[in-house]
Amino acid sequence: MQRRELLKGMGALGLGSMLINSPFQAMATPTQNLVVNYKDLFNRALAENPDLIGFANVEQNFAPQALTIEGSIPSDLNGTFYRNGPGKHERAEQRYQHLFEGDGMLQSFHIENAKIHHQGKFINTPKFQQEQQAQRFLYSAPDTKLNAPLPVSSADMINTANTNVIPVGDDLWALWEGGSATRVNSQTLDYQQQIVLGEQSKYGTSLKGLPFSAHPKIAANGDIWNFGLNPSGHIVLYHLSANGQVKNVKIVDAKYRGGMLHDFLITDKHLLLILPSLTTSRSTSNNQQGFFSRIGFDKTLPMRVLVVSKSDLTMTKQYELPAGFAFHYGNAWEERDGTIHFDASLYPSIDVLHNLSNVMQGKMSAANVDAQMAMFTLKPNGSASHSLLAINSEFPRICDYLVGSRNQYVYHLSSSNNSLWSDSVCSLNVDSGKQDKYDFGKDFLVEEHISVCPKNKEGTGYLIGTALHVPSKRTCLNIFKVENIADGPIARAWLSHHLPLGFHGNFNAA
Predict the structure, then answer these.
(1) H or E segment to which residue 41 belongs
(2) 3 state DSSP class of 5
(3) Fewer C-beta neighbours within 10 Å, C or N terminus of the chain?
(4) Is the pTM here over 0.90, yes or no?
(5) What is the pLDDT, as a whole number, of residue 12?
(6) What secondary structure letter does DSSP report for 150?
(7) Spans of the chain below 70 pLDDT
(8) Residue 471: which of 50, 55, 69, 54 has the closest Cα?
(9) Going by C-beta distance under 8 Å and a sequence separation of 6 or more, which residues neighbour residue 344?
(10) What is the reported pLDDT for 370?
(11) Quick one: pLDDT at residue 155?
């Protein structure tokens, strides 16, 4: 009965054709190529400004290598740190016009016996395989239009698997915004397959190709919660077991047409879908305008919070908040009386999205701009309040075992007003407001750092992440003790080369 109802709902809501309607393939029809040569513009800018090196194209995989260690790797830190992000930005004379469009490249840092080995490999998706053989881009991307692109009949035909990576069972799932999760071998980083959720269950192939967001939340018991956005305004909700088996799927009519919904939150009882103040406009130039470039910010449009019950994935309540936009949230938790608290890296506009297009042509407008740490409270009576902290914040993370429960610390990146990328890592005590911060200095482009902490011992353990040292053109892996971040890394492992700036990752303990 549940499967029949789900399929019936998909048909009625048009979700069975979600693949065709995906925004990530909306640019697949033939279009006239733009006159602007992004590749030439970027390469000329790179010659003048080496800070752009993190956005340069990667030509080939990075072979396994042992890293040079400064300091001492803690004896109790063993496992693999995985990162994902776009690495293939160019083919032939074409350069993608937005940072979100590049093909995904996985980085693996294996830590064992106080040594670290690295390897990096492109995710050999069907799209990547085809274009690697052709040695040119074959499909138009959300903002990049080709003269004669191949037609697209499903979102997974252009799935770049380029945003996040999570361990699931013995495998890795590389995640994108608009289509299926991609299974990758956790040891070799070899592509295995695009996952058909629920294939070995009552759902069969009914969920094939539906959007599966790049920011799933993994609860303390290992269960995986996620969503997928459809341009119709509907959101698909997922509840999976720790090994990736589907427990429940439902559809919520969110009536949201902002085009982008990157992250969400869970508490012990609910999912929080936080809909930003975004709108999408129609192009007036014969569909020449790109998908991302059509997304705008409406300061008169409140953010909305949809509260969804975990027990049956039905919406129970809605809240309105002041206008705003956030790529990322740290955590949410719930009091006994139903009061919900959550934090966000809150932007006053959508400029950051468009700056990620500017940087692809070498423009030095800050890619990471004016997001502030914001704390929100939702009351059971429907009222809401928030406070903005005088803290620049992005890529917030917490101890994994506290996802959905009350946390005391949020670990995040920060940057100065004129920085191209982040330049600092921070720890915020949300109870006292005290912040511990380490500034890498102007020569580093700092990426997401994650908490590796023992269960039931928040405020201890390590903070681990990568940074690109521009003068030497090398990337380093940094390890901090979370109790003393301001003291700097207790260990630093250097590659012989630089890695492309990526997005998200996770640590899989040995």
Answers:
(1) helix 38-48
(2) helix
(3) N
(4) yes
(5) 35
(6) P
(7) 1-36, 282-288, 365-369, 417-418
(8) 50
(9) 274, 324, 326, 328, 329, 330, 373, 374, 376
(10) 79
(11) 93
